[in-house]
Structures are given as C-alpha cells and as structure tokens.
Design a protein that fits this description.
heterodimer; A: eight-stranded parallel beta barrel; two-stranded antiparallel sheet; 13 helices; globular; B: alpha/beta; five-stranded mixed beta sheet; 16 helices; 27% helix
Amino acid sequence: MAKKKRRSMLYIPGNNPAMIQQAGVYGCDAVLLDLEDAVALNQKDAARILVRNMIQTVNFYNTEVCVRVNNMHTPFGLADLEEIVPLQPDNIRFPKTETVEDVREFMKEVRRIESEHGIEEPGMTIHVMIETAKGVANVYDIAAADPRIDAITIGGQDLTADMGIIKTPDGVGIDYARKRIVMAGKAYNLDVLDTVFADVNDEEGLREETEYIKKIGFAGKALINPRQVDVVHEVFNPTENEVRKAYRVYSEFIKNKNAGIGVFAIDGKMVDAPVVQRAITVLEYANIDLKEIEKSVR
Amino acid sequence: MKNAIGVEIPEFIEGLGKLEPYQGVWKSIIEDEVPATNISRTLKAKKPHTSKVCDNLEVAIKKCNPFNGMTVTFHHHLRGGDHVLMATIKILDQLGIKDITLASSSLTSAHDGLVPYVENGMITKIFTSGIRGQLGEIISKGKLKYPAIIHSHGGRVRDFLTGRIKPDLSVLAAASADEEGNATGAYGPSAFGSMGYADIDARYSKNVIIVTDNLVEYPCVPCTIRQHFIDFVVQVDSIGDASKIASGTTRITNSPMDLRIAKIAASVIEHSGLFKNGMSFQVGAGGASLAVAKFLREDMKRKDIKGSFMIGGVTSYGVDMLNEGLFQSIFDVQSFDAAVSTSVLNNPNHIEITCDQYANANNCGSMTNKLDVVVLGALEVDVDFNVNVITGASGEIRGASGGHSDTASGASLTVIVCPSFRGRLPIIQNRVHTVVTPGESVDVIVTERGVCVNPSKPNLAAALKKAGITVVDIRDLKKEVEKMTGVPAEKKLGEKIVALVEYRDGTIIDVIYNVENLS
C-alpha cells in the first residue's frame, strides 16, 4: 500500500463544531483536532466532549484524523487520553515532548486505556511534537522511544518562545531545530512535519516557506486555514516532468528486475536502489498505482 | 390546473388576469407562435426649443398627470443606495395617488420604506425580479393586495413588450444627464456603470423622467438613454448613497468553504468539454460563484485559453480578466462596482447592453442563448435539480430571480454552486420550496461534498468522473447531509397566494403562499 501522504495537516479548534463537521471536505491530507493551544482553559472539557462525539459521527472522508491532546503535565492530558484513546483516531499528537521519559509516561497511559477497552491490536499511531530546546536536544532518543511513533513534528511558536527569540519570516531562529528534527526523523523512518505558517493572507510567504521545508526533508506542514491547503499541495506535488521521469525509472526498474538486473542506466545515468526509491516516492505523491505500472511492463 | 412540474396554478387571479401554466423550458417558445400581442411605443410630441428640465421631481411628476391605478417603473442599478424610488413614491402619496402598480426591475433593502405604502393600500401590485428585507416579510404575510409577480430579468422585458406591465410613469436615475434627457450611468459622482435595465422603461413608458445629480452641458456623451424617449429631466442633490451604489473593487471571498466549492466548480468547467478557446462565460457577483472566476482565471492562464465574451452583472474581477486578454469582450447589463463604471466608459470592448439583448426569451438575439457556461448560486436545490433563489428557510420571500432562469436556459453548461448545508439547514430538498429555475435547465450542482450531475447528462458525468471529480447521486448526497442536519420539519404555510413566480416565457412556474408564523 502506498505510504499515507501528510503534505497538509489542518488544525481545527476542538471547541468549534461547525469547523469540525466540515474538516473533511477541504482536501487536506489530515485534520488535527486540537484540544491544546487552540482551546481556552475554560473550554477544555467542552472541547474534549465535542471532539469525542464528532469523531464518532462526522464523515472525514479519506482525511487522516489526528487529535492533539494536552500535555500530560497539565490537568487535562490524562482526561483527554481517557476519552480519545478508546476511539482510536488515526493518530494522537503529544505536545511539548521533551524526554524519553515523557514518551514512556504517556505511552504507558495509552496502553493501559487500550487494554481496559479490550483494544488488542491498536492501529492508532503517535506523533510527538518537539517544542522546547530540551526536546530538540533529546530528539534522537525521543524518535526511537516507541515503535508506535510514526511522525515527529516541530512546534515553531512554542519553540521560539522557549528559546526567548522572535519567530521571524525567514525562520532562521528555528533552522537548526528543523534540520536536527528532520535528521532524527529520517534516522528512524518517521514522517517529519513542519510547524504552522501564521499569516493566512501571505500566500507567497507560505509558498516560500513550504518550498524550503520540502527541500530540507519535511514530509508536510501543519496549517491553520483551509485556504493554505492548495499552496502546500502545489509545492509538495511533483511536476509533470518529475512524474514522467519517475514513471520511466520505475518501468525500467521492473523490466530489469524481471531480467535479473539490479543496476542499470537511463540516458547514460546509473539507476540504483536510491534512485528507484525516489521515483517511487514521486509516483506515490502523484497518486499513480505502482501495480498498474508493473502490469503494463509485463 | 397543473403546470409541467406539477404545481397547481390558478387559472385566473383577480387583478392579474388569466394565467398560463409553465410547460417546459423551451416548449412555449419553440412550439407556440409568439404569445400575446406586441404593444407599440407611445407617440409623443414636443415643440422646438422648449425645456424638459423641471425644478424638482414633484413638478415633473405632476406634469405626467398621475392617476389612481397607474403603473410606475424604476430600474435597480442603484441597488442598496437608491433614493429615487422612495422619493417618487412619497410624492405620489402626497398627491393622493392610490392603487399603484410598482414595477421596479428589482427591489433591495433600500426599499424597506415601501412597507407602509403596501400596508395602507397605496401600492397594490408589484412586478419585480427580487424582493428582500422587510418588504419581503410583509408580502410573505399577505399584506400586498394582489400577489406579487416575480419575473426574471429577461421576463421583465417580455412583460413590457406584451403589455403585461403597462408603464405609465418611469422615473429613471442617471449618474449624468443633460437637459434633453440623454443619460448615462457610467460617469458622475454616483456612477453605477451600465443602465441596461432602464432601456425598456425609457422606450415603452408613457412618461419618462430622468433624475440625475450631475446635470451636464448638452450633449451628454457617451450616453445610454436617448433624448427622444424622455419627457422630463430633474436635477437633485443626490440620487442615492454612493457607498451603497458602487464602490471600490469587488473582492473575492475569503471563506474557505466558498473557495473550496468554487475550486471544484472550476474543475467541473475545465473538464466539461467547453473549456476551450472561444468559450463564453457568466458568473454571479458574490460568494462561491464569483470565486469560480478566480480559479477559472488561473486555469485559463495555465492552459492558455482565450475566451470569447463574458456577460451579465459585471464585477471588477471580470474587468481584470478582460484587461488581461482572457476574454475578448464583456457585454454588461449591470455593473457591480466603481471600477466597472470606468471600464464601461473607456474600454470599447466593454459593451453596455440592454436587458432585452441580454436575456429576453422573445427576441432573436438574446445573449444568454450564446452562453457556454454560467455559474449561479442557490438558496435550495432539489433532487430534480430545480433551484430556489427567492424564498428562505421559513418560506418567506427574501431573494431574487434576477437572470437565474434566463442564463440557465441558454447556457450549454449551467453550474449551481452551493454548500450542502447552511447552519443547520440542508440545501438539497425533495422539492424546493419555490422553483425559480427548473431542473431541466440545470446541469451540475457543486457542493463541498461532491458534484451532482443531472441524469440527463450522462456523458458529462462520465467525463467528470474520469477527471477524478467526486460525482455523487443527488439523493445519496441528500441522505448523507441529513445524517448531520436531520430532516427539517415541513414549512407551515397559509392558503393565500402572495406571489407568483413567472418563468421567462410569461408562464407561471410556481406559486408562493403566505407564511403564518414569520418571526
């Protein structure tokens, strides 16, 4: 099965029923139902109940559903888990993860709740958010801390606050963190997802930032407005030329594989396993079924 | 008697006469002789070198010999900023005139002041393409003596030509005019662009008064309304509130939902088979429908498509597309913002047209018949693709027929854009409360949750599916939405007919009953 795309992950405040019921129609790859920063302290209970109910009733179509719970060190974290874990959304996102111990602590609770609800083969995966300098320092260990972690993400606003700097449009203050988190994620085959771009009216700024984070290895970006979806997809989607090239590489790869040949050349350039892997990634982003290519080659 | 969509139509209504039931989009036009008799223009005479200019509107109106039972007509180019209609009605009231038939091309929130005149019986009949606000409420409650006639823009012209509307006095606001009554909307402090709706009034009314706040040296050129139709000219301090008439430029909506729907609609157009050089196009001025133009503009640039013409109500967004060379020309019956007025005035490819040329079903050159693609909004749609743009959730009159049915009938592809629900109300019904545009003339309904294609267009459905567009059966979509919203209770209606919806060929397509418990 093709790897799930996470180009666009749209934050929806957990206390906004109108937005939640429409979350699946905007064409984003994932929705992030937020119980944390988007919800005021006096709305935490209402948001938790609303998200719990709407996960069970709203059609999110093919959109991946992730719930961002509150940190376990707040009065709300455990209560969030008690309500959300039994529903097994596609993923739960843990904010402000700083240490391996943090991961162990919340995973212990996750597994306990799953066990209590008789969930023997949980499909829900875990996203960890790195939002502090300490988290950045420990990110390699965090990435490896639990096999259910399948994505790691940077929270730019909290990180700059923790670092005592201002988040600038060029992102220079969090550049090291971005790259370190990418490398940790890549080391453990995790999706690495970028922070939000706060100015919803600055389409060009969003495009520039997305082009940059794509170049350094992010798989996608968190969004705060559905209007940001198209720009991010345009950046992450391969161009027609890229797709044609990838199609050719994969077709030749299958032909050569069938003939027992591992390494071959196209237009004089060597094609080996990494080149094939890149071609597969491009084709998957273009929604092209690899099996169809394999059939056509036969 | 029942019409072709199963609505029971009275054969006769006192004060309005015999009614003809709707038979189908083209049936009466194709199969019948041109129904009714043409009326001829009123003969008028004026001695050389006498002045038409009157000191004020009251003087001009008195010179027109107003009488009980007369028909007074207006255009609605001043939209929500209009002061001329209400000023005229007040004068007629002061003169003791009663039993007036009001025939304004549309009525807006600027005309809430009509309420007491309807309630006291001074105004007894209304012909118009749109009714909103408090006026819509009291008509819905049955306060107008005879049922209002809701016609389309094209239908209004037809009603003048057949004598259904017999204009005795037309008071026409102009942004600039001269002493003879040559008049324009394109320049002046209250510029509003095209005067397309006013042409028929000027040509056929027994008495025509031009009212302007910018009396210019003779001759007023270029002009739309010509002097040989005009009886009197009045200069006033202001024809209306300029900020509500036409201001600035039109902005595309920021609503993510409208943008999402618009993007899907643009994709439908792109894969309809009509997206090619020479395409003609019309789009509404608000919300999701205008936003379709944004995405179509991008698609046209990307694929190097050059369209033929745009028509209809024109926004600055359309003007931008004209100036970028994406279309050869604009045919403008109504302009929506100040930037459009400038374009009407200065760009020879921005052509002001009359409503007759725009949308009259009973002529041989209606622009809507040349239209490839139109994108329109809806208050409600139903599983037979009928569209309601006139009555709201409680059955109250609160919208406008406008050019909806005119353009839908002529366009090769009619696209309706609407959310699948608003607030808690599902938009797709078993039957819309009021049919304005029949499903026979609607091809596609685009919602955020999928695209419904009229079963009469299977090839279109196949083409859209092939392009990866989510095509859903309209009944399935209705069920899906009702899972969230529930099924609304039946509207509680009275038994009094308060309005008739006249199709563009003069037949009656639907009947609106009074609403008893309108809050």
